[in-house]
Amino acid sequence: MTEILQQLVNGLAGGCVYAGLALAVSVVFQGTGLLNFAQGEMAVVAAYAAWSLAAAGWPPVAAIPVVVAGSAALGAVLERVLVRPVEGTSPLALITVTAALLLGLNGLVAVIWGTDPHSWDSPFGASAVRLGDVVLTAQQIGSVAVVAVVMVAVGCFFRFTGLGLRMKAVAINPGSAVLLGIRPGRMLAVGWALAGAVGGVAGLMTAPTVGLSPEMMQGPLLMAFAAAALGGFASPFGSALGGVVLGVLTTMAARYVPALGGDLALVVPFGVIFLVLLVKPSGLFGRAAVVRS
């Protein structure tokens, strides 16, 4: 029983990596109706920036807010400079732009910081808490707490604030939003900025666990898209919950399902997603359809 509980804790902690990134993916979709394939690389930039500030002597309490704000600014700039010119064209053009951003940011990180992996100490410290025979590290506890707070904050933003409701209106029907006096361009920039900030948090929570490298978020990004598909791309809560579920399923499958060690453990969560989408294509918490005109 103790081992099962320990594996559950490990799965929850790993799922927070997917949940944070899936939340950022959902924020872009919720606010703009688009999928950002460069979301993982934006998180990598944030992680490296925090690592550089830490190496320069900045304490985490000062470095993290600066990096999150910088990630928000990066998201807004990328939307303004690269996404805005093709906004309103074909979906294929938008997909191409975000895919090009993925490759471009990955190359930029390699040029600035190199390709050698680096380690970064957890901002929560190296301590651990024992609950009987189950061990919870400070990084695990901190990651779960931070992702939970961000998830609640994003949900409240879209549900209870005027800005969040206007962003949802633009994503659902930009034409009607314009008739209501909403400026879609501004809402798109805000959506990318918010996603940049959330993705930056995800990168900061991931780096102490997996280490720093230009490719550190490529695997988690795939799982984040899967988590968003499971929970519903249009639902920040569902996307984050999907990430946690995938983390637990992957960990449990790798440990307890024979012949499913390593990457083969991904067969189980993706099989669950396939079954869910057969029954509810929009995901467990997603809308049935999103209309763009």
Secondary structure layout:
Elements: H1 2-32, H2 39-55, H3 60-83, H4 91-113, E1 128-131, E2 134-137, H5 138-160, H6 162-172, H7 174-179, H8 184-210, H9 218-231, H10 236-256, H11 267-279
Antiparallel strand pairs: 1-2
Helix pairs in contact: 1-5, 1-6, 1-8, 1-9, 1-10, 2-3, 2-4, 2-8, 3-8, 5-6, 5-8, 6-8, 9-10, 9-11, 10-11
Can you summarize the main beta sheet? 2 strands, antiparallel
Task: State the shape.
Answer: globular
CATH structural architecture: Orthogonal Bundle
Number of helices: 11
At the first level of CATH, what is the class?
Mainly Alpha
Instruction: Report the count of strand segments.
Output: 2
Distance between the termini: 54 Å
**How would you state the average pLDDT, rounded?**
85
Provide the descriptors you would attach to this structure in a database record:
2 strands; two-stranded antiparallel sheet; globular; ABC transporter involved in vitamin B12 uptake, BtuC; single chain; mainly alpha; 293 residues; 11 helices
What this model shows, in words?
With 293 residues, this protein is an all-alpha fold. It has one domain (2-127, 134-279): Orthogonal Bundle (ABC transporter involved in vitamin B12 uptake, BtuC). 72% of the residues lie in helices and 3% in strands. The protein is built from eleven helices and two strands. The protein has helices at residues 2-32, 39-55, 60-83, 91-113, 138-160, 162-172, 174-179, 184-210, 218-231, 236-256, 267-279, and strands at 128-131, 134-137. A two-stranded antiparallel ribbon has the order 1-2. Strand 1 and strand 2 form a beta hairpin. Helix 1 packs across helix 9, helix 9 (218-231) runs parallel beside helix 11 (267-279) and helix 10 packs across helix 11.
